[in-house]
From TrEMBL:
Pathway: Cofactor biosynthesis; thiamine diphosphate biosynthesis; thiamine phosphate from 4-amino-2-methyl-5-diphosphomethylpyrimidine and 4-methyl-5-(2-phosphoethyl)-thiazole: step 1/1. Gene3D superfamilies: Aldolase class I. GO terms for molecular function: magnesium ion binding; thiamine-phosphate diphosphorylase activity. PANTHER family: THIAMINE-PHOSPHATE PYROPHOSPHORYLASE (PTHR20857), THIAMINE-PHOSPHATE SYNTHASE (PTHR20857:SF15). Binds 1 Mg(2+) ion per subunit. InterPro entries: Aldolase_TIM, ThiamineP_synth_sf, ThiamineP_synth_TenI, TMP_synthase. Its EC number is 2.5.1.3. This is Thiamine-phosphate synthase. It catalyses: 2-(2-carboxy-4-methylthiazol-5-yl)ethyl phosphate + 4-amino-2-methyl-5-(diphosphooxymethyl)pyrimidine + 2 H(+) = thiamine phosphate + CO2 + diphosphate; 2-[(2R,5Z)-2-carboxy-4-methylthiazol-5(2H)-ylidene]ethyl phosphate + 4-amino-2-methyl-5-(diphosphooxymethyl)pyrimidine + 2 H(+) = thiamine phosphate + CO2 + diphosphate; 4-methyl-5-(2-phosphooxyethyl)-thiazole + 4-amino-2-methyl-5-(diphosphooxymethyl)pyrimidine + H(+) = thiamine phosphate + diphosphate. 4-amino-2-methyl-5-(diphosphooxymethyl)pyrimidine binds at residues 39-43, 71, 110, 140. Its cofactor is Mg(2+).
């Protein structure tokens, strides 16, 4: 598997897009606009809905040569043959994800504003480091704030792609890119847009050569 982690990283939100048809249409619009990495994030306990939605998103992402990452749930990632999983500091361990998903899986880890957490994630075999939140977030208003300096510090010392998250919009995206972020993880700034395809296109144009080939 050849994987380049770069560009727009859309994340679904079960409150913003509760209906499966609306979810699939919104994601397809973002894929048409150039998004090549998608995270399925649904905090509900509805296993059947989560499996059905994640399976449909896997097929859709495959159609567009895009990666599907599952938030929090290593076993759902395995069940739907997703490309990887995103783990927070309160989620399961990287080693456990690697054991279940194998060496080619993409494992991303939330490191907030912390260099020691980023260093630990790198040592434990993470594939990308997520930092944030950089701007006020409509989706997760209580996420701890991060300064742009952490992007510079991590990119200077750790050879992994950096994902910036939290309140990212077309207006502020260039700040995280200029600081050294390789991917922008976006929920509201993408999926709450009236024109998701056009917004994805504009985010994608901020990068060149974004792709995720499996
Ligand atoms: C790309 C990306 N970065 C950070 C997060 C947040 O993960 P976590 O801290 O586990 O919080 P939840 O998303 O699970 O509420 C993420 N999901 N994706
Ligand atoms: C899921 C999540 N994690 C964050 C963190 O800082 O770890 S911020 C966040 C929400 C991102 O959504 P939006 O683009 O709407 O702000
Ligand atoms: Mg989590």
């Amino acid at each position: 598997m050849t994987t380049q982690l770069h560009g727009l990283y859309g994340i679904t939100d079960s409150q913003l897009l509760p209906d499966t048809n609306a979810l699939i249409s919104a994601v397809e619009a973002a894929l048409k606009g150039g998004m090549r990495i998608l995270q399925y994030r649904d905090k509900s306990q509805n296993k059947i809905k989560r499996f059905n939605q994640a399976s449909q998103l896997k097929a859709l992402c495959q159609q567009y040569n895009a990666c599907l990452i599952i938030n929090d749930d290593i076993h759902l990632a395995a069940e739907v043959k997703a490309d990887g999983v995103h783990l927070g500091q309160q989620d399961q361990a990287i080693t456990q994800a690697r054991e279940v998903l194998g060496k080619n899986a993409i494992i991303g880890v939330t490191c907030h504003d912390s260099y020691p957490l980023a260093e630990a994630a790198y040592q434990q075999g993470a594939d990308y480091i997520a930092l944030g939140r950089f701007f006020p977030s409509a989706t997760k208003p209580n996420a701890p704030p991060a300064s742009l300096c952490i992007i510079q510090q991590v990119s200077a010392n750790i050879p992994l792609p950096i994902v910036a998250i939290g309140g990212i919009t077309l207006d502020n995206a260039s700040m995280v890119i200029n600081a050294g972020a390789h991917l922008m993880a976006v929920i509201h700034g993408l999926f709450a847009s009236d024109n998701i395809q056009g917004t994805a296109q504009q985010f994608t144009q901020l990068f060149s050569g974004a792709s995720c080939i499996s």
